[in-house]
Amino acid sequence: MDPLQIASFVVRFQLAAVENGTGKKQWRIKVTHVQEEKETLFESIEEATAFMKSMVEDS
After folding, report:
1. Is the pLDDT of residue 2 over 70?
2. Which of 3, 41, 45, 55 has the fewest Cβ atoms nearer than 10 Å?
3. Quick check: 40 and 30 in contact, CB under 8 A?
4. Using alpha carbons only, how large is the chain's radius of gyration in Å?
5. How far apart (Å, rounded) are the C-alpha atoms in residues 16 and 53?
6. Following CA atoms 34, 3, 1, 31 in sequence, which dihedral angle do they give, to the nearest 10 degrees?
7. How many domains are there within the chain?
8. In a domain, 33, yes or no
9. How does pLDDT run across 7-26, given as a tens digit for each residue?
10. What is the model's pTM?
11. Nearest-5° angle of CA 35, CA 37, CA 1?
12. Residue 45: inside a domain, yes or no?
């Protein structure tokens, strides 16, 4: 990776649902890679992080 290269992401969390009884929250996570204007949806922060990592490693 070029030391001057920049990878920017916008991460948005939207509450999708709350389970009755347990109160567990389900999130919809949208990650936007700013340089490529590529948006992708995820259900977990682990998936979102893996996506960002792959975008940076492929740069």
Report:
1. no
2. 3
3. yes
4. 14
5. 24
6. -20
7. 1
8. yes
9. 999 999 999 999 999 999 99
10. 0.79
11. 30
12. yes
